[in-house]
User: What shape does this take?
Amino acid sequence: MTAHSPSLLGSRPMTTMQVIIVAITIGLTALDGYDVLAISFASPGIAKEWGIDRAALGVVLSMELLGMALGSVFLGGIADRIGRRNTVLACLMIMSTGMAMVTTVKSVELLCIWRVLTGLGIGGMLAAGNAIATEFSNNRHRDLSVALMAIGYPVGAVLGGSIAAILLKGSDWRTVFTFGAIVTAVFLPIVYFALPESVSWLLDRRPSNVLERVNHSLKRIGHPILDQLPDLNARTDQRRAPWIEIFRPALASTTILVTLTYFLHITTFYFILKWVPKIVVDMGFAPSSAAGVLVWANVGGALGGATLGILTARFGVKTLTVTFLAGASVLLGWFGQGQTTLADLSLVCAAAGFCGNAAIVGLYGVVARAFPTPVRASGTGFVVGVGRGGAVLGPIFAGLLFKSGFGLQTVACIMGMGSLIGAFVLAMLPNRVATQSSD
Assistant: This one.
């Protein structure tokens, strides 16, 4: 077979192996969900054992988010240079090492160092995973595949939170990280043996033995092999400078608007994810109960992401995302009113998680379509990495607000403004950007 376009999979039906690869990206993102929230599950125990106040705890809660920002930006660019598969394998090794070493620390400083390292791996994984889900899907199912990849995050948090609640009943906070390190390491052989390199990336980068490698990937996913390579298109020069390309006139406004939206929304979203366990414990409930409430927030997140993925078959991804951003802001105000029972706390957190994660899934969908193959991981990495600055600042800023004497209602309303402003920013993005083909 001779191809005439680098986009070989866009118009073809998805094979079983392509579906399995999307499932692997869900699992990888689920690892991210567990690893990021592991510190939240453990935070009440850490605060009690080491006697740190809320402001210091806010810094600890943000450390892997700082690493995630750095990893998304730098490892995202590396994924466009060395390949999606190699980047994922490297990130898994980094994450597993970081989680394991946390169990050995005896000071806040060392804890922060290892959480930054873990965050590096998580950030790179997010950038590479979005590219993999996009590039192994056809045009018809691309938005759904990206949505499913993204909802792996709350799914991992739900399953991990349930396990964390059990672990915290019988042992200290370190077991949460031991479990995470083991599960992360298990994915190394899965990725090594089951995940081929992206055909789109190979055709764009043209590494040595490219035809042989392209045909190897095509055979692995059940598609006919090529007799010769397709002609390069006009995007070839993008391979040389991905960081410059995402700020050229054709992409600059998209890069800026989506990054700013992500930054603002993540500030709101991570206030819920990082502070719910501590807030619940301060209300007089047990740490295991706090983990359970956070699980419900992520149950809502998984349902919200799945709902957005289904709705993209009928409505534009940008419109849906703007709607869910506004909803997340309103629901955070509801959370701030205060709840008296675990059932009420679980309900409001589930509702906030529903809208909050649906908006994140929508933003991943916009990014997947907005950036072409040569700069997809770089573009995703920049949006996620710089946007994660909001994840770093959110918990710290909330901690300072609490320390200054503001009550939950005021803090929640202030933090909820991020998603609302983000909705207005995203509304400025031209509709054609969010609906164009991703290749």
